[in-house]
## 1
Amino acid sequence: MIAFVSALFVAVFAVEFAPDRVRAVLGPVIRLLASVPSVIYGLLGVLVLVPFINDHLIGEHRKASVAFTISLTGNSLLAATLVLTVMIAPLMVAIFSDGLRAVPGGWLEGSLALGVNRWRTFWKIAVRTARPALVTGTVLATARALGEAVMLAMVSGSVGFAPNPADGLTFFFEPSRPLAATIIANSEELSSPPMQSTLYAIAAVLLVSAALLSLAGFAAKQPLRRYGVRT
């Protein structure tokens, strides 16, 4: 949700409101960020974000409150969420921008000719028309996030621990280990039948989740067929 909102506003700015010089630089930069390997984001998270969270956001009192259960080191659900958001947002921006550029210019010019201001025109016509592209970009980016393993294993703590919402804000600073990262962490134990069954079950959950996500995106685009932009 954070990535979607931020990516949408960046795409609107890049397509409609950015000066030509800024637009010429912003486009290639966004596409470069969308193609950066996830391990690079994980490395930046480990070197920059995790130490910052540990030094500035997690106090000694918060660490002591859960010391009997888990150690808070900065590798956390918060770090995983922020890095994952930064990682998938450029992909959304790239797809959203292509969808917005595909909106016929005559539609926007007609609205402007009627006296509607530039922001309202673009938001009500271009963004609404490009909704199929928004759905497509969201599904593709979310699918990438769903199967991400390496980066999340680096910044989430890779600990077999379920953060407890009852801990309040401490919940966001507790380590965890996502499903895809669990498969990597235990891949050497496939020779054990119980572990093999467990990893296959986790893989099945990820596969079914990806399939349901794709079906949800397809269903969401059906009412939008009347709009001119298709992806």
## 2
Amino acid sequence: MKTNKLVRGAVVAALYAILTLTLPAYGALQFRLSEILTLLAYFDPFYVVPLTIGCAIANIASPFGIVDVIFGSLASFLALTSMSKTKNIYLASIWPAFFSFIIGLEIMFLSTEPVNFLLVTGQIMLSEFVVVTIIGVPVMKYLMRNEYVERLVTQV
């Protein structure tokens, strides 16, 4: 692996983790602004692994600990892989919301209080949809109009 590629992957993983850890990102309503970065996987499949690693690092701080590191990262990996194989950015942006059912199951099984799976999953799906599709897609489309940013993102 080229040094340049390794550094870009490390920067993306670190950015995802830092944004998640510094902004409110856990619970039923998790408006993780770091999730906008998941759209990088749409532009280049290379970002699937760095973003999954960033998610795993961020989930160490989760109230559910190692379980969230495993299953939260699994949900991200599945969403990112699906995004990287989807040809339309709007359709690709829906995958994180779709795979939120894994987080809903995790919260349902690990919460100390009774949890309504459909309600919790719906809240997570809504927050993913808002962050990735409603906010993220226009932001990424705007950024990708800049030739420098496009080269930076796609020439890994």
## 3
Amino acid sequence: MAACLGVTAPAVNKWESGASLPDLALLLPLSRLLETDPNTLLGFHGDLTKEEAMLYINEIAQTAKDKGMEETLSLIRKRVREYPSCGTLLYQAATLLRGMAILFPVSEARADAGIPAAG
């Protein structure tokens, strides 16, 4: 991380320990490196209410029903990146994925080849 951002490893260690914060000029490069948006790094995405989390879960479930596993996984990644600290969203998404894996198992040969299961 330090090399990618042009800073020293001790500087990154200080950020991780909370002893200091990165320079504001590093916000965009840091967000790209961590594959998140600057709002998340700055804490602008607050926790979702349970109702908001369930709306996202319903959206994910509908995507699973209509569009399949690949698009569902993409949507889950997007929502989890937006709200990485929302326990309700994380738990419900994991539960939904587990159910999908049980209902639509992927054979080992197909999984090893990167081929999704027939739906």
## 4
Amino acid sequence: MPVNKITIKDVAREAGVSTTVVSKVMNAKRLPNGRLDCETSESTAQRVMEVVKRLDYHPSRVAAGLRKGKRFVIGVITPDISEGAFSEAGKKIEEAAYKDGYTVMFGSSNENAGRLRNLMRAFCESGIDGLILTPCEGSEEIIHCIMEKKIPLVLCNRDIPGLADAGCVHIDNKGSIKMAVDHLYGNGYRKIEMISENMKVSSLDDREKSYTETMEAYGLKPYIYRTDEKTVEEDTFRCVREAAEKGTEAIICPRILQSLYSLKAIKRLGLRIPEDMAIFCHDDNPVFNLCHPTVSYISQCASEVGEEAYKMLKRMMDGEAGGKIVISPKVFFGDSTEKTLVK
């Protein structure tokens, strides 16, 4: 048969005090000398705590939060929660939030603004204290609506320039691609091209701009191929084949799908890495360290981004301002960009 939940009234009755006294004792800070910092006498506070322990009473954070206008629930929306970097960041956010007593609601926008709108509406109707969001193309108007609701918001991995009052955490996307081009140039490669995606988001824009600017600084001609989301595998194969036919020495892939499909295309075309074509990838994937030759890649630092995004959101939920954090990327150099004879 069900057991009745112990309430604050039960504790008060057993201790012979009011519920107000119990609440003060439970919420009091413990001083360095071990005493509780509250108006109640030490003997009364000790009696209350003994009853709390004997009855195994646990106050409801949700109930306390509702009295303060909080639900202890946050939302996290990523393009695809199953994708490596987003999954790792989400896990770190959930771990940190759990320690603070928060429940996390997850959703994936699938890079679709309409789907993002529906998720945000559902989250707001359910009641959230804050939101961590990776914006997708065409989501600016939707995000402005969430800002009008005064819900603390942190943009994660991508930015929307000019969005006031929102926090933002992402890696240095320009710096990461510059390091890739610098490394390839230093290893003797000159015909360096990029296989990107036909999508308008800040992270990809920054990576493409950095590639173009760094190539031009070296006096080299940049060239960017772009794939479509629905035909990414076929498009990537076509791009790699065209690059090989042009005598391209190295390719840079600023997104994970282009990276993986480029590796597949190079193998399918019978090309050798790095002798026939070097490759530098973006984002983390176990295959980069397991395949032969190993692949040079730029880490998204997903755990660090997720942790900092939650910390910023927590500060904002506590009434502080947001701000922006740009994390230095980690670069791993594999055999796929080793020095080889310039063609």
